[in-house]
Amino acid sequence: MDFTGIHHLTAISAQIRENKRFYTEGLGMRLVKRSVNQDDVSAYHLFYADAKGSPGTDMTFFDWPVQPERRGGRSIVRTALRIAGDDAFAWWQERLRALGVTIGSVEERDGRATLEFEDPEGQRLALIDDGGAGEVFPWDRSPVPSEYQIRGLGPISLSVPTLERTDHILQSVMNMRPARTYPNDASEQVHVYEMGPGGAGAELHVVDQPDLPSSRQGAGGAHHVAFRTPDGDYDAWAERLNEMGVRNSGKVDRYWFRSLYFREPNGILFEIATDGPGFGVDEDEETLGEKVVLPPFLEPRRAEIIANLKSID
Length: 313
What we know:
By secondary structure, this protein is α+β, with helices and mostly antiparallel strands. It contains 5 helices and 16 strands. The strands form 2 sheets. The protein has an 8-stranded mixed sheet, covered by helices on one side. An 8-stranded mixed sheet has the order 6-7-8-5-9-12-11-10.
């Protein structure tokens, strides 16, 4: 069993209306699912992705009125968004400056052109050149021209205090492959792990930082990272986690995909998520994200849930 790449990255926003504006009107991603946190129905859960809501393209946000993240170790520290071509970087530099985003220069990281930046709440992001690999589904109503649109997620970068423990679960439990290392700005070695076919959308980058204080989760930070599994492997993954003694959530049906949750040994929350059935199971593709949708088990509470949600349009 191999994961086929990053499935999604879920983060936290305390300013969800502004968050929606930045990711859709600014970065040009499509809001493909407007729902609520299934474990906290007072909060929106928004999913931004490509035109179809393809697995591997969506960055999602919980709407929680919390304090800003305190940065540190034992955390997801940066989410890369994939674009293609030198022209795309020039376009995006101009675009981000126009949005009031502070940016540096395009630099080569791990052999790929990279432009790091942050969203208005401090969410750490990067645009990286993925070489144009793979199928893409541009959104025809995006303010970003199709050739420059964000193509998907990955790599995802983590900071841990003890690489050996994380390395064990990545290789022995999750079947990832150590691929290479490269230095970061502090000359620390970043360890690259590949899954499935490899490539930017199927990599986890892990840096060993034992002296870094632990982070405190909050707005502008990441909540968890999810890895893609074919639907047919889901039950086998559930069995594998249990057989190998990995404490986990057990099977969780999120309606648009099925999930398993567990923490790697340094405390970062991981999710295994299926590709299907997908965001089109309860909405027409043409109107994805235009209204609040709820999984069937929450539908009896629709009136109550909707009444407690603020407008984000």
